[in-house]
Amino acid sequence: DKHDESPTITQLDAKTVDRIAAGEVVERPASVVKELVENSLDAGASRITVAVQNGGKNGIRVRDDGRGIPEAELSIAVKPHTTSKIRKLADLESGVGTLGFRGEALSTIASVSRLTLRSKPQDAVAGAEVHVEGGDIGETRPAGCPTGTTVVVDDLFYNTPARKKFLKKDATEFDHINTVVTQYALANPDVAVSLEHNNRERFATDGSGNLQSAILSIYGREVAESMLSIDVKPDVDGITRIHGMVSNPETNRSTREYLATFVNSRYVTASILRDAVISGYGGQLSSDRYPFAVLFVTVPPDRVDVNVHPRKLDVRFDAEEAVTTAIETAVETALVDAGLIRSTAPRG
Ligand code: ADP
Ligand code: MG
């Protein structure tokens, strides 16, 4: 009888715990890219270059010109639950101004890959690097590098073969990476973001701060020229501002992935927001066609719950209906004013 030999309860060693936890944060190469790009943005970078090989399976490199990490802190940054962004629980409750704060990303990525963290703060005379292999942290060594940080992640999931087996083909994994980098590039037109796959550049934004020129770099001229600006401050039900760009109804695609919505600068895929944008077109789109949109919704932080989970792209508003109505109206007004659709409801 199998109940005769009851297994003894023992505490898992830290490495096993990390590797299990890694599954929560790092699902595929695109999740690594997301975490690294968020770190670069949190570091105040004005330029971020992302280069991946084979859909990110055999190499991910993210380089920024941000504030850098002091040599003495490199080996701390790759340990579990180490962060410079919050100090205590109260900091969380008063609101976090950074994209990250859990202090999990670098350590979890490093526990399932071979990772090199190389950095030089502005005021340091030289750079340094640390190499981590499957969670084993090596010596910190001097390294020549410009101001900023470079993270190289090789052989993702080399020590978790079951997870590695579930990766899709290179093109599919790259699509996910492309989606992630595109979101951050659109959300941060003041940062020059570039993406390269197998040594071929896919796009590079200029960092000028102009959203239309970021759209031009990413989606091309035809799309960029079809975009209309939106900028309204409804000031009702705590909606501070809705701004961004939407395409004319003729410039559309068969998937919703070009409909990018952001709440307080965070990308969210919530269908209520996308549906609100679509309703703004007032039936001018065929049912299986979707516009291009890059729309930022700003609400006071205490009236919205975004990103409760590291991978969650959903959002909850206090005043959901007011938000969707405001989006719909803003989109409709932009299209009506441009003479592209007729008003569906009497206004004014
Ligand atoms: P978190 O972002 O939640 O703080 P991470 O594991 O992603 O946790 O990073 C740990 C710490 O390493 C960060 O708090 C930050 O101090 C430092 N760090 C990571 N990436 C960068 C970067 N690109 N530039 C500057 N500092 C960085
Ligand atoms: Mg982080």
From TrEMBL:
The keyword DNA repair applies. GO terms for molecular function: ATP binding; ATP hydrolysis activity; ATP-dependent DNA damage sensor activity; endonuclease activity; mismatched DNA binding. Residues 215-336 form the DNA mismatch repair protein S5 domain. GO terms for cellular component: mismatch repair complex. It comes from the Archaea. Keywords: DNA damage, DNA repair, Endonuclease, Hydrolase, Nuclease. Coiled coil: none annotated. GO terms for biological process: mismatch repair. Belongs to the DNA mismatch repair MutL/HexB family. This protein is involved in the repair of mismatches in DNA. It is required for dam-dependent methyl-directed DNA mismatch repair. May act as a 'molecular matchmaker', a protein that promotes the formation of a stable complex between two or more DNA-binding proteins in an ATP-dependent manner without itself being part of a final effector complex. This is DNA mismatch repair protein MutL. It comes from Natronocalculus amylovorans.
